[in-house]
Structure formats: structure tokens, C-alpha cells
Amino acid sequence: MTNPEMVESLIYEKPESLTDIGTHYCPGCTHGISHRLIAEVIDEMGAREDIIGIAPVGCAVFAYNYFNMDFAEAAHGRAPAMATGVKRVNPDKVVFTYQGDGDLASIGAAEILHATGRGENITVIFINNAIYGMTGGQMAPTTLPGQRTTSTPLGRDIELHGFPLRMCEILSQMDGAAYIVRRSLHDVAHIRKAKKALRTAFEVQRQGLGFSMVELLSSCPTNWNITAEDSLKWIETHMIPTYPLGDYKVHAALSVK
After folding, report:
1. How far apart are CA 139 and CA 89, in angstroms?
2. Does residue 25 sit in helix, strand or coil?
3. Confidence (pLDDT) at 254
4. Distance between CA 79 and CA 98 in Å, rounded?
5. Would the pTM count as exceeding 0.90?
6. How many whole angstroms from its chain centre is CA 56?
7. CA-based nearest residue to 118, from 90, 84, 92
8. What sections of the chain are H helices per DSSP?
9. What residue segments make up the domains of the chain, in order of their start?
10. What per-residue confidence (pLDDT) applies to 103?
């Protein structure tokens, strides 16, 4: 007879959509959290065999090592263009890109704008940490006014460098956009909301409603030159006021079970 006190309960399990390979991300970086959320959503949808992911150059350049699914690597900024081709050739697949802010909002600005304008039925996961992470901590299009980077040691000067680009606000104005939202990864409550948004974005694609993007405010303690704990607080106190969280466009026909 089994002693009830000796029965173990499974409270944690690695998603099947993640490999056993350790990541290269810096301590305190929230890329790992976003990877976990994506993998959980894909497992819950039972979609691992029908998913194709695309990551370009940037901190996520090795994402294909960490996801246990079909994956491709695009040139810097060109993930939406590659995703367009992959989706059109494989319309029955769920295709997503995983892009940083330097990649999506700078060198890939044309690709993301035109993919949205065409209403491509793909999903974009946009990691915004307000800086170029992999290449040395330079100013990105999303860098906050006054924020110090390796290329703006005195802080971003809006008169010299211009204002940050708010991609959700920009893309939500386009007719091809079906689901454009911004979430954050700085605490548990917001992480749960981020996961729900990712699930919805994939459902938008499954329902054939058009272009979807989930922007996730993320940390970069290494290039922000602060501790991992302080970087999460910095998201809340500095990034969210500049990049307000919320739903910027939701297709009227969207139905999520």
C-alpha cells in the first residue's frame, strides 16, 4: 500500500518545445522567460509539429538551438521578409519571428512596416530592451530620452538623436494589422499577461485574420550597467511610462477559446 505522504506531485516540467541546451544569454536577461512562454504556449496548443520560427541576427541569433521545432535564421532585420515567403509557401503552418528592437525597429524597419501593410498572416514577437544588446550596447531606435549607451555616453539627446520609435503605436495604424499589443516581463503578474497575449497572437494567425505582433518590454542588465534585480525595476519605472502597456489593435472578428 502506498503511503500518501510519500507520493510525489509533478509541479514543474520543461516544455517539449524547448531543448536541453543551456542558453548564452546574460544573467538577468529576460530572453529566457520569453522563450519559456513561447514554448509553453506552443505545447498547450499542440502545435509544435506545425510551427516554423525565424530569428535574425541579434541576441537571439542562436534561438534555433533552444527551440525544439523547425527554425530558420534570417539576415539582420529580414525576418519578416523570410517569414512572408515561408508562410506563403506553407500556408497551413504557424510562422513566427523573434526579433529585438535594434533588429526590428532599425535595420528591419522597412520589412516590418511592409509586412504589416500587406497584412501578412504571420506573428511577430518583438523583444524591446531599449538598446543594441549583442553589438555592444549602442543606442537603438527605442532608447529612452536621456538614456546612456555606449554611443550616447551623455544620454540620448532628442534634439540630436530624435525621439524613440513606438512600434505598437505605429503598426496599429496600418490596415493590415490584426493584433498589436504591448506587454512586459518585469514581474510574475505581467509575465502571465504576456503569455496570454502570445497565445492570442498565434490564434489570430490560425484564424487567418492577418498580421499580429506582441511587444515584450525586456531587461538588459549588462548593457544598462545595473543589477538584474534593478533592471526589472527599471522596466517598471522608466520603460513603461515611455512604452505604455496595453492592446493597441484587436481584430473585431478575433475569437479565443
Report:
1. 36
2. coil
3. 87
4. 8
5. yes
6. 12
7. 84
8. 31-45, 63-66, 79-89, 101-102, 109-117, 158-161, 167-171, 188-206, 221-224, 228-234, 240-242
9. 24-249
10. 94
Average pLDDT over residues 120-142: 95
Residue 5 pLDDT: 66
Closest listed residue to residue 35, CA positions, set 49, 11, 50, 53: 53
Measure the CA–CA gap between 208 and 206, rounded to whole angstroms.
5
Rounded to the nearest 5 degrees, what angle is found at the Cα of 35, between the Cα atoms of 53 and 203? Answer: 60
pLDDT tens, position by position, 169-197: 999 999 999 999 999 999 999 999 999 99
The set of residues, in sequence order, having a beta carbon less than 8 Å from that of 251 and lying 6+ positions away, is 178, 179, 204, 209, 210
Tell me what pLDDT residue 134 has. Answer: 87
Q: Which CATH architecture has domain 24-249?
A: 3-Layer(aba) Sandwich (3.40)
